[in-house]
Amino acid sequence: MGLLFIPHCDSDPMAVPECPIIVEHLSKTFKARRRSGLPDKKAVDDISFSVKKGEIFGLLGPNGAGKTTTIKMLSTLLIPDSGTVKILGMDVTVSGNEKEIRKRINLVSGGERGLYYRLTGRQNLKFFSNLYNIDKKKQDGLIDDLLRTVELSDAADVRVEDYSRGMKQRMHIARALVNDPEILYLDEPTIGLDPEIARDVRILIRRLADSGTTILLTTHYMHEAEELCGRIMIISKGRSAGYGTVAELKETVRDTNIIEIITNDDPHHAVVKISGDVSYSNTERSGGRYCTRIQLKDKADILPRLNTIFSEYGIRKIGYDEPTLEDIYLSLVSEDES
Ligand SMILES: Nc1ncnc2c1ncn2[C@@H]1O[C@H](COP(=O)(O)OP(=O)(O)OP(=O)(O)O)[C@@H](O)[C@H]1O
Ligand SMILES: [Mg+2]
User: Fold this and answer.
1) What share of the chain in percent tops pLDDT 70?
2) What is the number of domains present in the chain?
3) Is 275 within the bounds of a domain?
4) Core-most of 33, 62, 144, 213, by most CB within 10 Å?
């Protein structure tokens, strides 16, 4: 379990009835196939959170943590085993609600599914408008607006197969906006996009939230979550490992506990030597240098010792640093795995 007190919705001040998304004690287990010899998989294990109107809420976690399974239950594509999910005040498990909920939400998954590549952007939007029974007289105006929103007006009559990845992803978002959803689920919306295009997609996400759309976002990019999300839940092995605003999550790691060391060479062996003193460590190569961030178990001043141990790798910089969301994430997730 993580460092944080994890509020359940009944003690969560945000879980007010007008929250468009309220999740309480949600669980889902996938049964193993008969005769496979594999155990059942508990994909989501007693998670609770709520999302306010117009909020961008982040669901973060390693591969297989249960993010997509959660989104599927929140969008009525999967039935929960236990717990309650209220979407726009409607319980997803009550028969008849599913249809009403689907009219008022939409979902975008990263990757390249869900569009008709041989059709143009405009034809795709026409197809999906018909699917949602949008009044024919209003369709042309709506489609023009959507194309403008995602900045694809100039490519409206080009086949989607000729779009770049970024254009396709913006078209996915336009497709998900045809029913003017009150809630938009974005499952890794910027996966595989180059930084500039990912930034354009983030700007679009922010604009949608500012105009009142409630957004639940999953991402593996911490900077993206930090930039966009009001509040975040970090899940690991289906369970909540941390829940709160980025600032609240950061408060759980005192800044004197994080040390950053930049070296010329890969300090792998030095990191192994200090493993007893650290809660987690992470080394990334960037610009030909190695940046190692470590979180100390105790506040003990081990800088002189680190200086000695890391010196043979060519220290360019060493010192305490403010925690980043990535530090918090790695700390909570590694704690859960140990
Ligand atoms: N239809 C399914 N049948 C059986 N097991 C499943 C099914 N869908 C997901 N799982 C399992 O449930 C767990 C959670 O999967 P899920 O797709 O929700 O993770 P995720 O957090 O979205 O991961 P990623 O970051 O890789 O997208 C995984 O162990 C996965 O293998
Ligand atoms: Mg997923």
Assistant:
1) 92
2) 2
3) yes
4) 213
What separation in Å is there between the alpha carbon of 72 and the centre of ligand 2? 10
Query: In a mutational test of the pocket of ligand 1, which residue from 44, 69, 224 has the highest number of ligand atoms less than 8 Å from its CB?
Result: 69
pLDDT at residue 3 in the model: 39
Q: Is 63 in the pocket of ligand 1 (CB under 6 A)?
A: yes
41 pocket-lining for ligand 1 (C-beta < 6 Å): yes
> Do both 137 and 30 map to the same domain?
yes
CATH number for the domain including 273? 3.30.70.260
Q: Verify that 88 and 142 share a domain, yes or no.
A: yes
Q: Cα-flanking dihedrals φ and ψ of residue 163, to 5°?
A: -75, 155
Pocket probe for ligand 1: among 27, 30, 224, the residue whose CB has the most ligand atoms within 8 Å is: 30
DSSP assigned state of 233 = E
Q: Is the pLDDT of residue 5 over 60?
A: no
Which residues are CB-neighbours of 151 under 8 A, at least 6 positions away?
A: 170, 200
Give the Å distance between the CA of 66 and the centre of ligand 1.
6
User: pTM for this one?
Assistant: 0.88
**CB of 323 closer than 6 angstroms to any ligand 1 atom:** no
Domain co-membership, 151 together with 259: no
Sheet strands (E) in the chain: 21-30, 41-51, 56-60, 82-87, 90-91, 105-109, 183-187, 214-218, 231-236, 239-245, 258-263, 278-286, 289-296, 315-320
What's phi and psi for 303, nearest 5 deg?
Answer: -55, -45
Average pLDDT, the chain: 90
Q: Higher model confidence: residue 2 or residue 192?
A: 192
- Where a domain ends, among 195, 224, 250? 250
Ligand 1, atom 24: closest residue by C-alpha: 63
Residue 171: predicted pLDDT = 94
Domain range enclosing 298: 254-322
pLDDT at 10 over 70: no
Residue, of 337 and 286, whose pLDDT is higher: 286
> Does residue 328 fall inside a structural domain?
no
Q: Which of 250, 284, 300 is the last residue of a domain?
A: 250
